[in-house]
Amino acid sequence: MLEFTLIEGGILALGAMIAGLILLVKGGDWTIESAVYLAKHWGVSPMVIGFTIVGFGTSLPELVVSVIANFQGSPGIALGNVVGSNIANILMILATVAIISTVTARPANGMFRDLVMMIAATVLLLVLLQYGEIGRMAGLVMVLILAGYVFWQYRKASVAEDEADSHPPAFGSKGSAYMFLLAGLICVAIGAEFLVRGSKVGAGIIGVPEAIIGLSIIALGTSLPELTTSIIAARKGHSDIILGNIIGSNVFNVLGIIGLTAVLKPIERGSFEPQIASFDIWVALVVALVFSLLLVVYKKVDRPVGLVFCTAYLAYNIYIYAANMGS
């Protein structure tokens, strides 16, 4: 009977993961197509669209998981989810896309200020974690910083002449584009939830310790929307949306998700694993700095860099699993 239960659970987990993947692919396609279409009609550059709508939209799974985890008394999962997702977004998501197709950077499109914002947000979270808690006021300040930056970014945004798309999305009107954008984001969020649930059940069956689920399985699972939308954007030749998606997601993860999570319920001192403050957030900062330097100096992320990043991500996960299983 036990063997049958395990097999049945494994089949259900696999089914949830497959269903989630299908929703992610379709939702990602609709999201990218409608976002590029609306960017032209709004007079906003694809980089800004990637940073805000696509970047924030694909972070919906992280938001749901983090808020629920904190309310259920597991702030470590909430923090681990965000920190782990920011690491995965660069070392795994962007790297995977770069292995498939080189991602090129155009600093003139506001990329530099977005990179500075990403680093500043990471440093802010690092300082708060060293302090030991994230109160409701700190969370509110984080949310207000994010809102102010997005407003300022839209005020300065404009479409460059060389961003014309030779393959415009086939939408009959802005109304239909809005509908497909909303449907795409919903599919992405639901698909990611299925994948995370399936992954958690599968992890329980094979005996993966829950202490590192937030930093590894959940973090990678909730980052799959970024992977899906980035691969689709790469296939359509939209490097600006890829970079905006990754950078925007990382900024929103810190300022939006942790900020809102703390506003709803403060993250108290001693309620999360010390490893997050002493090691993982430092890894996230180093990864953000290396990524930013690479874009500013090298101006692209190609296959060799992608392979190095993927190897580094694998090494990071091996380390945190070994460290926790040995404790």
Task: Please characterize this protein's 3D structure.
The protein has 327 residues and is mainly α. It has one domain: Up-down Bundle (A middle domain of Talin 1), CATH 1.20.1420. The chain contains 12 helices and 2 strands; from the N terminus they run H-H-H-H-E-H-H-H-H-H-H-H-E-H. The chain has a two-stranded antiparallel ribbon. Helix 7 runs antiparallel to helix 8.
The amount of beta strand, in percent, is under 5%
Task: Let me know the CATH homologous superfamily.
Answer: NCX, central ion-binding region
Average pLDDT score: 80
Global outline: globular
Poorly predicted segments = 159-167
CATH topology, by name, is A middle domain of Talin 1
Computed over alpha carbons, the radius of gyration is 19 Å
* Class per helix and strand makeup: mainly alpha
* Range of helix content: over 70%
Tell me the CATH architecture: Up-down Bundle
| Distance between the ends | 33 Å
Tell me about the biggest sheet?
Answer: 2 strands, antiparallel
At the first level of CATH, the class is: Mainly Alpha
